[in-house]
Each structure stands twice: as C-alpha cells, then as structure tokens.
Amino acid sequence: MSERNPSRPVEPSVANAKEPSIERLFSLFSHELYTRITSLQGALWLLRRQPLNDRPEVGQLLDLAAESADHLTRAIENILDWYGLSHGRDFLFLQPGDGADALRQAVQTLQPLADERQIRISLDILESIPLVTDERYLRRAFRGLLHNAIKFSPRDGQIWVTVTIVPSEEGPGAAIALFSIADRGVGIAREDIGRLFKPFQQIDSSDTREYGGLGLELAICHEIIRQHGGRIHVESVVGRGSTFYVALPMDVSRVL
Q1: What distance separates the 2 farthest-apart alpha carbons in the chain?
Q2: Where does the record place the Histidine kinase domain (predicted)?
Q3: Pair (219, 115) in one structural domain
Q4: Are the CB atoms for 113 and 132 separated by under 8 Å?
Q5: CATH code at 198?
Q6: Domain boundary among 28, 59, 86
Q7: Domains contained in the chain, number
Q8: Structural contact between residues 162 and 124, judged by C-beta atoms closer than 8 angstroms
Q9: What is the pLDDT of residues 155-183, one digit of tens each?
Q10: Range of the domain at 61
Q11: CA–CA separation, 186 vs 24, rounded Å?
Q12: Considering the chain, what percentage of its residues have pLDDT values greater than 90?
C-alpha cells in the first residue's frame, strides 16, 4: 500500500463500486489477520534466538513455523495490495523519480533469497533512468518480477537484469526505458501466457503444485505498470526460461 505523496494520483482499472461484503473482508485482512500474523512473526523471531539446550528438533520446528508465517504474510500482503490497487483504495502518485534506483533497491531486497538458492543476479543498467513514477510501487513491481524469476529458477541458476533505451512513437525526442528480467527456469507454455497477468490464476493448477502462491504477484505487477502508463509482456520457452519486459515512458524533460 502506497504512501500519500503530494502529486498526481492515477485511477485504478476497476471502478470503486460499493461492495459491502468485499469491504468487510478487506477490513478483516487489514486489521485482524495481518496484525496477528505480524505479531506471530515477532514472537517466532524471538523464540528462534533462545538457547535450544541441545534440542535441534525444536529449532527445526521453529524454522518451519517461521517459514510458514512468512509465506502467509506475503499472501495477505498480496491480497491487500491487489484489492487496494484495483478497487481504488490505493493510488499511485506519480512524480519525478529514478527507475534505476527503484530497480537496484528491488535487487538488493531479493539478493538474500537469491543467495540462499545460490542464484546469481547479473545487473546491467544505466546509472540513472529518469521517469515520472511512484518509486515505492515501482519497486514493488520489480520485486514481484524478480521474486518470480528466483522462484522458477533452478538452484545455482542465473538471472539477467538489463535496461535499454529505445525510441518512442509518441513524438520527436520521446523515449522508452525497456527493463528486462530473464531467467533460465522452467518456462511457460504458449497457451498459458495469456493467463499470467490475471488475478488468482495459477499455471499449475494441480493439487500437488510444486510452486505455491495465490496467483496475484504478476497481476499486481501488471496493474502497477499499467498505472505508470507502461506495458509488460513476456517471452518464454518451456524448459529454457522466460524474459519479462517492462516498457516505461522516460521523463525526457530531465534527460540531458
């Protein structure tokens, strides 16, 4: 959910109709489940730092509980973010910002997870990429795409993050920053690509899905990029990996 900044808000894609039952559910997630799960995370964090008195099984159980609590927290955050963005509770406030900083910070946040899975992240971007952006939400979108790449990459794999500047059809001097995040993971079948950015869609819908999640991460990314006036698409080959592209209009008034 975004901080309120004194600049231009962007309207969500779904009308903010009166939906009493959905509103009550949103309130439940916000004030009951999320608050309680974060309290549980804090308690587990403290317990994991206590002496175990030669009882490694207790440490293993605490690690499992903490991992489950983290997973549930991410799921609740995704529900809150998706509902807030798509139903008009949260707005993007666009102002001059730096896409390079947003991307670097997203990589920094996900680096520990990549290190844990021995996945290398190769970053090749410009020093500065002037955009009209809500940097907090843009970081959120980049984190979602990076998390997705890590999630579906093999252990000891690699992810390539690059940015190129391409001319825009909007007029003379206009330009687009084209961000790409490429992995060599499991890949996506052609017939499934159309469902990727729809909410609550899972490519693997079997009862024994190898990869968890609610199917909201990419839908949130898509909505954030849309509200930036940008586009997102993917190219993928099953068994060879995927490349996600994000095209955002540059703020040419700040380009020397």
Answers
A1: 70
A2: 28-252
A3: yes
A4: no
A5: 3.30.565.10
A6: 86
A7: 2
A8: yes
A9: 999 999 999 999 988 777 889 999 999 99
A10: 17-86
A11: 39
A12: 47
